[in-house]
Design goal:
The chain is of the alpha+beta class. It has one domain: Tumour Suppressor Smad4, CATH 2.60.200.40. 19% of the residues lie in helices and 48% in strands. A hairpin with a 2-residue loop joins strand 11 and strand 12.
Length: 197
Amino acid sequence: KAQAAIDAGEAQPAGTEKHLFLVISGVGFDAAMIADADATLKAKMGWVAYFVAGMRHLHGSRLNARISLDGRRFQTQLRTLLVGNCGKLPGGITLIPDAVIDDGIHDVAAVDTRGGIAGWVQLFGEVVLQGYGLKNELPTKVGRIDHIQAKTTEILILEGAQAQVDGDIVGRAKRVKTWVDPKALVVRTPVPSLETR
């Protein structure tokens, strides 16, 4: 068997224990969608349950967020903040195209929409384009994903928001910190036989 060391991420909502993640941790819309997904529908229909839950949050308020990325501070409004160790999700969705699982740094995506349904439609288009390595450079976008890299993040949302790690809800939080543990996990994979190379 071959083996490789990959990064792990840790997220800690204020006042709670640390949570390990290997794919994505998020605060805001994505976590609210996961929290509201119907368990019975999820068992029967898979990802469709998240789509149905997400529809209920399309007209929700934008979050007022204060964000610190490796000590650089920003204040903004957004729908969700994602910290990615890996950017590809089941179903072939590329949410964070530059995320590499063993580069010792996380890729952070700030996701925002305005303009109601039009903003969400444009945002969906952004995600599809990312999957093909393309970017929408129009200056007047109402749905957007801004990408930046950081080893540590801290997000403060005074009104609080749902938080998740790798699809597991960790509850509502006002402050969440994340950081990367480089090469923290050793993964072993079968070596392909000569017949399959």
